[in-house]
Amino acid sequence: MELIRGLHNLRDKHRGCVATIGNFDGVHRGHQQVLNSVRRKADELGLPSMAIIFEPQPNEFFNPDKAPPRLTRFGEKVRLLQAEGVDRILCLSFNERLRSLSADQFVEELLLKGIAVKHFVVGDDFRFGCDRRGDYALLKEAGERHGFTVADTETLKIDGDRVSSTRIREVLLNNDLQLAARLLGRRYRVTGRVQHGQKLGRELGAPTANVRMHKHICPMRGVYAVRCSIRNERHLGVCNVGMRPTVNGLRPALEVHLLDFDGDLYGELLSVEFLHPLRSERKFESLDALQTQIQLDIAAAREWFASANL
Known about the structure:
This protein is of the alpha/beta class and 310 residues long. Helix content is 33%, strand content 26%. The model has no long low-confidence stretch (mean pLDDT 89).
């Protein structure tokens, strides 16, 4: 799989492909349906497949302080797209220039001059161009004029409602991890580097791995039983994700206590898979009260793990 960062890095070898475009936040089952269509058509035409994504995501560009939390960070998104069999990922920098392109300019600069697309697959709600005129009908017309075909995909529904990143965020906020897994096609997880923290967990008798968080990541708040992957090994643990109100946290944090583990994890890539909610986030009157609750959380997690069929 090849990652191409920006239009300026496109070369002649990248011209001629079957492509799709979108945020692909979460790479959920709706996205997987689109990617499956791209892969099948690419195999049929003997061409490479390409997924076009944006960084930052458009809603983060337009409303940086109000953008919803991401389901997947950039690196995790790339890994998930690769797992879906995508040959190339083109990451476009969503900036003022890209934002200002009209729909016709977008087609001309990206689809024709940039990648010389032969078949273009779009989701059911795709719109593009600063004038919002870009839609499936415009793409079909452009394809007929310039010699590429266009296909859209049917809306994927589960339990009568459309599968979308917005719906998954709402489901996760309500701690319905089973439904989230059905919508994603896998359990929800967060992946990031372990960084140095306040080391407060160690003082409270439960050392934690602090996973580096960006501003918009993880829509959940509370304490969870989790399964972690690190160095090709799996470990069970207890995860707290939220603002840490007891110690006046200023930004979202994700901390994991690995059960029966002793070792140095700093700088390692840790993947945290959420299995079961234990309790909501709340502020405790003292560190002693927090320490007592942490031990109760660990005991509750061990009890759940003992009864779960993992």
